[in-house]
Amino acid sequence: MLLGQAARQFRDGLSLDTTLIPLPERVLLEMAKYKLVLLRHGEGAWNKENRFCSWVDQKLSSDGVKEAQSCGRHLKNLGFEFDLVFTSLLSRSIQTAWFVLEEMGQEWVPTEASWRLNERHYGALIGLNRAEMALNHGEEQVKRWRRSYDVTPPPITESHPYYHEIYSDRRYKHCDVPLEKLPKAESLKEVLDRLLPYWNERIAPEVKRGKTILISAHGNSTRALLKHLEGISDEAIVNVTLPTGIPVLLELDEDLRPLGQHRFLGDQEVIQAAIKKVEDQGKAKPGEK
Hints:
The protein is α/β, with parallel strands linked by helices. Helix content is 40%, strand content 9%. The N and C termini lie far apart (46 Å).
């Protein structure tokens, strides 16, 4: 409530009483050169079922819609005004941006979608339940597949139940690479490799023009971008976890170098519980087998 009052003062051009702002978020209203907000989409149906969703086009669950709306209200209370929004080609990323902008009263803000912001391609693992896989293959192997930087899962083949659903989808017929060149499985490193050209050529120039940008994407495409911008090591990125529907603030200098570590915006107890929920997804649950 106090933060909302401070944000209203800021928007209305009044003298800002920073004592109204809780210390963890007080830096929001300080003058960084650039501000970038990253967001993992709200919960999807397969997030709820603990399945590898990847490039399968699942919609938001009812809880995911609520997460996106809550995120929009929080960003509005903090006084954010976006100039441009980037999403992946997947519906859960696009829907999240819609609900965020609607709650902020900024539905008119231009949006742009690219496959290069898509979730990591999990190959043959798509559709499988993480907890069941941990029982069958061990938690460490599942963690390597999910979290490591340079481990690529087995590729998807034409016999996979979701192969044709993905590769016959017309959204991929107009990408900047031929259909046959799209990935069949990816490590996080390979996600970063296909994401960087889009960041360097399309998003970063807009940031440097002074535009306030929201990137509504996915857990791994966002982790890959954070790794690049913050210089996170190959080993440390394993422990970077992003919950659904929680905005992440990056403050950047004129060379797009971070002014401190990325920060989750919102109730920190709620955020920590959400992070633990994501981390527990890859743990074996005896009795489910």
